[in-house]
Amino acid sequence: MIKVLIADDHALFREGLKMIIGRHSDIEVSGEASNGQEALEKVWNEEFDVVLLDISMPGRSGIDILKEIKSAKHDFNVLMLSMHPEELYAVRALKAGASGYLTKESAPDELIDAIRRVSMGLKYVTLSLAEKLATELEVDRDKPLHEQLSDREFEVMQMIAKGHTIKEIAERFFLSSNTISTYKSRIFEKMNMKSNADIISYLMEHNLTDSL
């Protein structure tokens, strides 16, 4: 029996996943978490074969939670679920140690296949994601500028593009406004930008505007 922990802040989505998983006799939902800290506590204190981890949750991001899990349990199987398309976070998630990445629009059968595969310690990637990973093997000069950003810098850039203020972003990540201002300065420096309008233009040019 494959024991699964569902970590997602939307109760209705968790219920939907439970219904899908419940149709299969070899998989069971053994736990639920509505935020990253709750997910960590369950991982530390209970036994699971696979964690279905949402990237966007209140407080710390799914990528941060993933890194903390993998730093302590290197062989732990984490399958990332996200409302964001692969272009935004898939490569970053896999580099951080995820066993696979699925969008929330994926078919139920694909989810079940992914759970079974990662439970065996294997990776699950779509064909399009495999192509993106192959691209990552090219020389650094061929990579887009945003690939130079840290995960947090990339998240801050996304929120700036959505029109959030420094204060709002600081509250979202439980950081100080000074820290967010530092992130913003680094983004401008690494991306050769001077204004928020430059960020929006760049994201549109590189098709990274799904949620703007």
Briefly note the structural class of the backbone: alpha/beta
Task: Give the tally of β-strands.
Answer: 5
Question: Termini separation (Å)?
Answer: 41 Å
Low-pLDDT parts are none
What Rg do the Cα atoms give?
18 Å
- Order of strands, main sheet, comes to 2-1-3-4-5
Helicity, in percent? 40-55%
> From the 3D coordinates, which CATH architecture of the largest domain would you assign?
3-Layer(aba) Sandwich
CATH H level, superfamily name of the largest domain: Response regulator
Overall CATH class of the largest domain: Alpha Beta
Largest sheet: 5 strands, parallel
Order of helices and strands: EHEHEHEHEHHHHHH
The total of helices stands at 10
Q: How confident overall, as mean pLDDT? A: 88
% residues in beta strands: 5-15%
CATH topology grouping of the largest domain = Rossmann fold
Number of domains: 2
Shape: globular
